[in-house]
Amino acid sequence: MMDVLTLIGFGITDALNPFSIAAMAYLLATDRPVERGIVFIIGTLFIYFPGGIGLMEGWSAILKNILPALPVWLPVLMYLIFGLACLTFAFYFYRQGKKNNAQEAPKLSSLSLTATFIFALGSTISDLPTALPYFAAANIIASLSDTLVYQLFLLALYNFIYISPLLLMLAIRMSAGTKAQAYLVKVRVGVDWCFAHLLPAAMALLGFYLLARGFWMIGGVT
Fold it and tell me: Of 29, 54, 70, 174, whose CB has the highest number of CB atoms within 10 Å?
């Protein structure tokens, strides 16, 4: 149960992506907001979900075929590495929030639906190398069960959490119509605040949890 809660925590942390939320806000302010918003979400999932399957299968192969032949202390080392990486990213995000340098959003009002889809693919691919929570989540999913259906369910849950801010913004735009712009501005401001304040704290908590688990496992190894 604790691993599932950790997985959800990683998903929430990963969902606080200020660039994709800012892009979604701009798309929802164009003349074709719903179509562009849906295409952007589909394009994001088109890369993120298969990418997660690849990560998960890679971890599954390691756990089944490689890990038994490796030293018993290696899982402990992995937890410690992920924990230190989370703390490093927490410090980095904290510094970025202190600088308060908002990334300039691209001009999206003239994008066709095809260009919107390609833009979503490119932005998601560019984010993958820094998607540390996704790498850790794939490891957790692979270690929780050998059943492919359950693994895919957990991966789908993670992806749903990841796109939940985008779905919320789309729902606001569809329900409030042209009046939604003020709400979307508040959403962007709220996400920027979360990125500056809550995300570093969440990453730090996850880092300390992974380090604590790694040190706890040391007792079992020794």
Answer: 29
